[in-house]
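Tip: read the tokens left to right.
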């Protein structure tokens, strides 16, 4: 068996002053966000609205104030070392060890502060005009409602009333923070409705925020996140993630990749099970992500359709006409935002694309027809990706390097998008990484080129400030977006901008 291996260098990102670096935190800490380079993509202030009890709003505002200043990382590890003067001939049982605490700030560096003097050159603004207080007595009445389904919906109604009030206030804030109480989280989080459909408070609120006359993205925040209770990230990491996400929601661009082509549109297609008005379970296609090289994301929902898993298989597929309409709609939205059509389209799926042999479910022809209806000379690559059980092993305690490409018999192509990261000097995950495999490709690009793009797309998640994700952005949020789509009724208002789903 012939196996070829190659290491893809870590893709770089671009930040303020066009500074390039492979790590998002380092780039932001040194030169600030990329948006500062382009007029219109850098908010110098972000106006925040608040919904919650007086106590939770006060706690949230204290967190906002804390984020305005430098925050030292709490990423500490304990190590045991022998004193230098101790004789090396002593056995392990005889040796006396010193216990030391060591700060590991390569992985989690200090937060630089979100203010106009820091590299972000941006600050949060609050105003009592954008605050709506929930009366604790009214909240208790809602949280006492039975059954739980009615309780979740009643709480969503209560929050939506405040949302509507803020969105009708002129001027409006850029983002609305919904500060949840502990009882909201424990008593009205989620409840099963039928089958695998769960009514979820967070998703329901995000869906309702989209239907307001003046839609404003929301950010839900729990007290345990603010207070740093167990099972949450350390404080500097929380600040990095929170501030970067709010900067993007307010119209800023934290960073952009340096190697993606400016005129290429990257699209991820996925499916989710939705509940129709007649209570029967149906399938609906969902374009979770459509991204350009600036990281500007679009979301679009396809038409509802029924899927017979017994006859056609577990994985749903589009008919020719639905595929044509779906890709046509997303490209029209892309042109509306960018002003011109892409010269190349890359579509990612986790299942194979069906062709003419599948009759009316000929996705390939439908996608081509949809693309050509918008821009006939547009190039296209359809790529089916899946994580593989095939693994490489290297000597030592760490897995293969992130960016390790390997090919088996020049036919099967694999890439590790997570693994040992040289810049961090560690593998920052607890589980054994799995490589992605190109299980199908239709188009003119080489598998290596496509997987290099996949590696870059793992660094485009602006919802956190980690070094990289293990999944390309085209696929990583498909499930989350689909779950929010479930809470939007047929004919309901859907916002195409990605910031409403974060």
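Filled-in amino acids:
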């Amino acid at each position: 068996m012939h196996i070829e291996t190659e290491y893809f260098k870590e893709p770089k990102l671009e930040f303020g002053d066009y500074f390039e670096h492979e790590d998002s935190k380092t780039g932001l800490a040194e030169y600030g966000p990329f948006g500062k380079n382009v007029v219109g993509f850098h908010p110098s202030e972000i106006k925040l609205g608040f919904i919650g009890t007086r106590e939770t709003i006060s706690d949230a505002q204290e967190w906002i104030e804390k984020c305005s200043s430098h925050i030292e990382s709490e990423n500490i590890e304990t190590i045991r070392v022998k004193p230098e003067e101790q004789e090396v001939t002593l056995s392990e049982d005889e040796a006396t060890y010193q216990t030391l605490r060591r700060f590991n700030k390569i992985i989690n560096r200090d937060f630089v502060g979100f203010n106009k003097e820091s590299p972000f050159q941006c600050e949060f603004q609050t105003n009592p005009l954008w605050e709506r207080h929930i009366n604790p007595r009214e909240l208790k009445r809602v949280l006492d409602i039975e059954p739980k389904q009615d309780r979740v919906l009643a709480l969503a109604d209560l929050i939506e009333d405040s949302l509507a009030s803020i969105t009708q206030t002129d001027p409006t804030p850029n983002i609305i923070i919904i500060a949840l109480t502990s009882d909201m989280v424990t008593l009205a989080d989620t409840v099963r409705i039928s089958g695998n459909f769960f009514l979820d408070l967070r998703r329901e609120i995000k869906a309702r925020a989209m239907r307001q006359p003046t839609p404003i993205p929301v950010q839900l925040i729990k007290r345990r996140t603010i207070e740093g209770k167990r099972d949450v990230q350390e404080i500097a990491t929380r600040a990095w993630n929170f501030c970067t996400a709010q900067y993007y929601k307010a119209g800023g661009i934290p960073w952009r990749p340096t190697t993606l082509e400016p005129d290429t549109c990257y699209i991820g297609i996925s499916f989710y099970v939705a509940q129709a008005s007649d209570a029967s379970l149906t399938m609906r296609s969902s374009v979770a992500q459509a991204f350009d090289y600036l990281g500007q994301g679009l979301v679009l929902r396809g038409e509802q359709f029924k899927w017979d898993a017994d006859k056609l298989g577990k994985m749903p597929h589009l008919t020719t006409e639905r595929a044509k309409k779906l890709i046509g709609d997303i490209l029209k939205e892309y042109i509306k935002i960018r002003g011109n059509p892409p010269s190349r389209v890359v579509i990612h799926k986790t299942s194979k694309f069906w062709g003419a042999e599948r009759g009316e479910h000929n996705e390939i022809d439908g996608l081509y027809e949809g693309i050509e209806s918008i821009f006939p000379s547009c190039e296209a690559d359809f790529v089916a990706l899946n994580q593989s059980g095939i693994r490489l092993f290297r000597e030592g305690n760490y897995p293969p390097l992130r960016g390790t490409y390997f090919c088996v018999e020049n036919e099967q192509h694999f890439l590790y998008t997570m693994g040992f990261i040289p810049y961090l000097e560690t593998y920052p995950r607890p589980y054994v990484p799995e490589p992605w495999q190109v299980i199908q490709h239709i188009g003119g690009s080489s598998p290596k080129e496509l997987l290099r793009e996949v590696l870059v797309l793992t660094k485009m998640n602006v919802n956190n400030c980690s070094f990289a994700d293990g999944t390309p952005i085209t696929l990583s949020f498909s499930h989350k977006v689909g779950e929010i789509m479930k809470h939007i009724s047929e004919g309901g208002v859907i916002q195409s901008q990605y910031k409403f789903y974060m």
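The mean pLDDT is 90. Residues 108 and 237 are 6 Å apart (CA to CA).
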